[in-house]
Amino acid sequence: MIPPDHPRYRSLVARERLAQYAASGIVTLEGLTAHGRGEAFDYLIGEKTTISALQAEKTAAALLLSAERPLISVNGNTAALAADLLAPLQEKSGARVEVNLFHRSEERIRKIGSLLADAGVRVEEGVAERLLPLSHDRALCLRHGIYAADVVLVPLEDGDRCAALRAMGKTIIAIDLNPLSRTARTASLTIVDELTRALPHITDFCTTLSRDEAGRLAASFDNRWFLSQALEEIQERLSHALD
Ligand code: PTJ
């Protein structure tokens, strides 16, 4: 039982949830360590959505709305933390959803698929083929899913696949609390924010952006600017950390 008045309530609930999903095989032990790294960077950005992250979230909505075949790629951590946030985002953005795992097993694919379906997400189905230029199992994807998508939202990604998807000419939106990660630097657009804060903002922007504004935003953004803003926020916080 985590008391709601605990100063770190939100973080403790997320950890407990991940631990439970690790026990049921949805999240991997590696996924738990990835979460810890994310939490460390969240401290550095102040555990809140920064102004530049909100702008990145608006731009992400614009990219999804302007896409011909938008897709959200879901791994174990994303499903465990945000299954209930993905259904409204899918509805408002019109994106397909595909499960794609680094530590892939058919059992995990099935379990994550049913967790998402129970939360109201329509998950792409079919026979995965080795279609991405990668030597590990993230190469396996659906021909009508990730392979055919033009814009792919990849929360909590590993850098390799991000680079491979970009090399295939796709626009990649990453959500990653670490602005220095290979993913953050390789993606077309990186949202430096915590997953469960970022997704509802993207959903909201999908409902409020006009088609014109979405087109304008999608046509002109600079990922280096978003990353440099995130690093500046961190530097600013660190320089006043003990005030
Ligand atoms: O479920 P699988 O088998 O596909 O495995 C998923 C993991 C997360 C294990 C895999 O994708 C992985 O190893 O990822 P990385 O390379 O550790 O990268 C994860 C990134 O996400 C790190 O840079 C973290 O800082 C960041 N991160 C972790 N938790 C969050 C986060 N970013 C935003 N919100 C979070 N909650």
Order of helices and strands: HHHEHEHEEEHEHEHHH
Question: What is the strand arrangement across the widest sheet?
Answer: 2-1-5-6-7
**CATH homologous superfamily descriptor:** Phosphopantoate/pantothenate synthetase
Helix and strand content put the structural class at: alpha/beta
Number of helices: 10
Shape: globular
Key phrases:
about 55% helix; alpha/beta; 7 strands; about 240 residues; globular; Rossmann fold
Write structural notes for this entry.
The protein contains ten helices and seven strands. By secondary structure, the chain is α/β, with parallel strands linked by helices. The protein has one domain (51-239): Phosphopantoate/pantothenate synthetase (Rossmann fold, 3-Layer(aba) Sandwich), CATH 3.40.50. A five-stranded parallel sheet has the order 2-1-5-6-7, with helices on both faces. It has a two-stranded antiparallel sheet with strand order 3-4. α1 (9-23) runs antiparallel to α2, α3 (51-66) crosses α8 and α3 packs across α9 (211-219). The mean pLDDT is 96.
